[in-house]
Amino acid sequence: MIEIQKLTKQADNKLILRGVDLSIKKGETVAILGPNGAGKSTLLKVLAALIKPTSGMVKVNGLDLKKNQTEIKKILGYLPHSSLLYDHYSPLENLVFYGNVYGVQEVEKKAVELVKDVGLSFFLNEPVKNFSRGMIQRIAIARAIIHDPEILLLDEPHTGLDQGAITILNKAILSMKEKGATTLMVTHDFKQAAEICDRIIIVKNGKLVDDFHISDQALSIVAQKYELQVEGAS
Q: Which GO molecular function annotation, any one, does this entry have (predicted)?
């Protein structure tokens, strides 16, 4: 599904990614952990075709990212730190707009269903600018999955959310997994990583320092590995 070889990214004479090699299979749900400045978000932005790598190879579904950006973007759902919502639009208007961009069939019906799924039906036609951080994030989640993407790229999606919004987000991620989607999630939240991911990648100083599968929501294993690779090695 995703193949990365010898990926580097340099910015302002600083090497942010240092020869990353990574292979992700279809349907995997992968958490990317690491300290601030490790290169986690940069890796996600490269995969989202938002920034160009300095060197290396990235393939998605066998397609070279450098040569097939438009085609690859069609199967991506991206949730960055910002919501990418138009704040003067309502949830319905935002989702219909993005759904039309991706050619979603019966887009208004799909938008209404997603707003209901994230628990905001009462605010369907209210401007997003009036929403709380948690409400905005819920609609941003719906925006990211309006077109049923094959790959979900989530950058610290749980930050600033209350427990209700966290539950809705995790349900959405697991629902997409059931549909066969592949998810990469940058997070600092070990608990959420353990609960919804089946594989953990730890990044430090632009390099992958650990890569392991987990089962049975093994939070203690995640914490132990992180401490060994990051905190113990600092």
A: ATP hydrolysis activity
User: Rounded distance, CA 86 to CA 124, Å?
Assistant: 14
Query: Is residue 232 over pLDDT 80?
Result: no
Q: Judge whether 156 and 188 are in contact, CB under 8 Å.
A: yes
What tokens appear for 69 in the block? 């950006």
Is position 169 within any domain?
no
Tens of pLDDT, residue by residue over 66-102, are 999 999 999 999 999 899 999 999 999 999 999 999 9
Distance CA 86, CA 71 (A): 25
Q: Is there a single domain that holds both residue 67 and residue 91?
A: no
Q: Is residue 168 part of a domain?
A: no
CA distances from 207 to 21, 119, 221 (A): 9, 39, 20
Domain count, the chain: 2
Distance CA 116, CA 94 (A): 14
Same domain, 90 and 206: no
Q: Can you give the residue range of the structural domain that contains 92?
A: 84-148
pLDDT tens digits for range 206-227: 999 999 999 887 888 898 999 9
33 and 121 part of one domain: no
The DSSP code for 206 is T
Q: Cα–Cα distance between 199 and 71 in angstroms, integer?
A: 27
Task: Please tell me whether residue 143 adopts helix, strand or coil conformation.
Answer: helix
172 and 141 in contact (C-beta within 8 Å)? yes
